[in-house]
Automatic annotation (TrEMBL):
This is Myristoyl-CoA:protein N-myristoyltransferase, N-terminal domain-containing protein. The lineage of its organism: Eukaryota, Fungi, Dikarya, Basidiomycota, Agaricomycotina. It comes from Vararia minispora EC-137. It comes from the Eukaryota.
Length: 537
């Protein structure tokens, strides 16, 4: 990983251009689709007619999947008779179709991106689990779906595996075993719908993610082929203390469920999940949090991925994004150009250090009160989450202002953090790796001043912080900066030129009932995005 230190040091090279400024003139529409679909026609009557035509075409498509061929067909239909002045561009149409899909999913009608094509009621495994089912009434009261049990009432022997396979606890203190896990995930973990990109967690990153304070080694559950001991499946759970609305919940964060491609669709996943659940029960843990692109019973919230383009030529080359019709590559490069030095370098932005950890922990705890689903972190956990990931691609910064009483000391007022998670570019002649940065946690004490939301002060501050995160990521040669519609992210995504992605991430709670939390939809008193305050690695 390139280091970022020189970025902070080079404050003299401070570039005063606002990261929001489009240098390419007013006609430079957003390239990767941050804007709402627009219909640019002069007369309102004409507009109405055209809109109804658009909705007619779109309505016929409700509930279906959105392959490229369909986008092309709709584009052709919507734009026919409009010659040089198309009503809607490709990206807008795709997004509208995606939106229809989202609505269907939320209504339980359809799966996403072909990931679960079966009927939503037909979940042989999940219908037996203590999770909210699709047709359950919204939870009146928060709490567990089934009671915790004493250790002696928990099944003592492992679940049976198909013959030829055996259980294997992955020892994270053994570099050879971490390497085996890395190899399993590199070849078999999460891919996008088109199988163009696959997450590539490094071995060091996995070690960091799977060894937080108090982790249980038995919760790294592997499956091997008995004859040759090859690792073919894995699931993990690390301890996490959650606040779900007003309840404190001791849980595990489940991640890295993976089965070798050749062994898919053999109902091995439910066995892995049950075995991990058993291990957790033996430790006295009866709740879990997990995320996934798949829709199963029942998301407590759904967030969308947004992407801030950095390396335009590469992203176009690998087809992560495309040059829209009304744009050239050169204009797109100008549009996404970022300054060379963080703006806050002047006000003390620097890498986080051990001495900051207590202040960051306090700032984090107070800031996270803004959301309904958050990890509660001890000082040790803050140390682990924001400092121990350093060598493996995590970048954490703090900024602050001088203490009024003592001009020598700084008071930490803000922090932000992001991490590196590259993806393998599958079958590309020139590029092997997409270097992606993912926004992690951040906080600002501006949130604690009265009326800051009304005056837009917090929005402004968070925007400054994330603009700097983008600059640092750009300097560190990341190709793209990703964020989800959670925490306060909605307040900067569009201004900082994030484009809406195809991917949705569903959040799930195991054995905990609560009403849906704000994600892509607002919920009661919470605006869009502001329910979820959990970022999973
Ligand atoms: C108290 C402690 C509790 C701890 C446990 C809490 C729960 C944790 C839950 C796990 C959180 C994981 C968080 C992450 O890591 S999310 C990342 C998931 N991993 C990947 O996407 C990597 C690539 N894919 C694969 O390796 C396989 O396709 C996997 C392993 C995902 C499924 O393998 P396969 O494709 O060969 O399927 P099957 O025939 O064995 O089994 C089919 C059954 O499995 C259900 N299924 C499929 N995918 C998922 C999924 N992502 N979450 C939950 N359930 C899933 C599916 O609905 C069906 O059940 P039902 O619909 O018929 O009922």
């Amino acid at each position: 990983m390139p280091t970022v230190t020189e970025v902070y040091d080079d404050a003299s090279a401070y570039d005063d251009r606002d990261v929001n400024d489009s240098e390419s003139g007013e006609d430079d529409g957003p390239a990767a689709g941050p804007s709402d679909p627009s219909i640019a026609t002069p007369s309102s009557k004409k507009k109405k007619k055209k809109r109804s035509k658009v909705s007619k075409v779109l309505n016929t498509l409700k509930g279906k999947e959105v392959p490229q061929v369909m986008v092309d067909k709709v584009m052709e239909k919507v734009n026919e008779e409009h010659g040089d002045q198309p009503l809607m561009d490709e990206e807008s149409i795709r997004r509208l179709l995606e939106q229809l899909k989202v609505n269907d999913v939320l209504q339980g009608k359809a799966g996403l991106g072909g990931k679960n094509k079966k009927d939503m009621g037909d979940h042989k495994f999940w219908s037996t689990q203590p999770v909210q089912q699709f047709d359950d009434a919204p939870a009146e009261q928060d709490g567990p779906l089934e009671p915790s049990r004493p250790r002696e009432e928990v099944r003592q022997e492992p679940y049976p595996l198909p013959k030829d396979f055996e259980w294997s606890t992955i020892d994270l203190d053994n570099p050879a075993q971490i390497k085996e896990l890395y190899e399993l995930l590199s070849a078999n973990y999460v891919e996008d719908d088109q199988a163009s990109f696959r997450f590539q967690y490094s071995a060091e990153f996995l070690e960091w993610a799977l060894k937080p304070p108090g982790y249980h080694k038995e919760c790294n559950v592997g499956v091997r082929v008995s004859s040759n001991k090859k690792l073919v499946a894995f699931i993990s759970g690390v301890p996490i203390t959650l606040r779900v609305r007003e309840n404190r919940v001791e849980a595990v964060e489940v991640n890295y469920l993976c089965i070798r491609k050749k062994l898919r669709s053999k109902r091995l996943a439910p066995v892995l999940i049950k075995e991990l659940t058993r291990q957790c029960h033996l430790k006295g843990i009866f709740q879990a949090i997990y995320t996934g692109g798949i829709v199963i019973p029942t998301p407590v919230s759904t967030c969308r991925y947004f992407h801030r383009t950095l390396n335009v030529p590469k992203l176009v080359d690998v087809k992560f994004t495309f040059v829209p019709r009304n744009m050239t590559l050169a204009r797109m490069i100008r549009l996404y150009k970022v300054p060379s030095t963080p703006h806050l370098a002047r006000s003390g932005l620097r890498e986080m250090e051990d001495r900051d950890v207590e202040a960051v922990a306090a700032l984090y705890s107070r800031y996270m009160e803004r959301f309904d689903l958050v990890p509660l972190m001890s000082v040790d956990e803050v140390l682990h989450q924001f400092m121990s990931g350093r060598g493996v691609g995590e970048i954490s910064t703090v900024t602050g202002r001088r203490d009024r009483q003592n001009s020598e000391t700084h008071k930490i007022t803000d922090f932000f953090s992001f991490y590196s998670l590259p993806s393998t570019v599958i079958n590309h002649p020139r590029h092997n790796l997409l270097e992606a940065a993912y926004l992690f946690y951040y906080a600002s004490d501006v949130a604690f001043e009265d009326g800051t939301d009304d005056r837009g002060l917090l929005k402004h501050r968070v925007q400054e912080l994330i603009a700097d995160a983008i600059i640092i990521a750009d300097q560190a040669k990341f190709d793209v900066f990703n964020a989800l519609t959670l925490m306060d992210n909605m307040s900067f995504l569009s201004d900082l030129k994030f484009g809406q992605g195809d991917g949705l991430l569903n959040f799930y709670l195991y054995n905990w009932r609560t009403k849906p939390l704000a994600g892509i939809n607002a919920v009661e008193d919470r605006p869009i995005g502001r329910g979820v305050g959990v970022v999973m690695l």
